[in-house]
Design goal:
By secondary structure, this protein is of the alpha+beta class. It has three helices and eight strands, in the order E-H-E-H-E-E-E-H-E-E-E. It has helices at about 15-20, 35-45, 85-95; strands spanning about 1-10, 25-35, 50-55, 60-65, 75-80, 95-100, 110-115, 120-125. Strand 6 and strand 7 (about 110-115) form a beta hairpin.
Length: about 120
């Protein structure tokens, strides 16, 4: 298993350039938007969100822009695993939350949560 990405919520897009790019040295890889339905399904937040993926040589960060602090949050940790289906089945058996979102032209999104609500996005290596 290895870390794929960490997702954080921010309120001000200027911070992406001011802090993460100019100070920490990250660069923009790409950006996209999640719609209200996906946001609600994955995070329990009934609003769409802009997402910016930044990286450096060692780390990938996803920033979800929320105009105000949100609880629940968009925060999650993406991990690369050998077989995400095996982990999802283990989670289901043990009573942990598993969220799968089927997508037509891309791989399914697969999230699992611990009892404290920490979310992990499972990605195949």
């Amino acid at each position: 298993m290895r870390l794929n990405h960490i997702a954080l919520s921010i309120q001000n897009k200027e911070e992406l350039t001011d802090f993460y790019q100019n100070i920490l040295g990250f660069h923009l890889e790409y950006q996209y938007e999640i719609d209200e339905a996906l946001s609600t399904t994955l995070f329990g937040i009934d609003k769409p969100a802009e997402v910016f993926r930044y990286s450096n040589e060692e780390l990938h960060l996803e920033f979800f822009v929320a105009t105000a602090k949100t609880i629940p949050a968009f925060a999650h940790t993406g991990i690369d695993v050998e077989d995400r289906e095996v982990i999802a089945q283990k989670c289901k058996k043990a009573g942990y939350q598993v969220i799968r979102v089927e997508r037509k032209e891309k791989y399914d999104l697969l999230f699992v949560s611990d009892k404290a609500g920490n979310k992990f996005e499972l990605k195949d290596k």
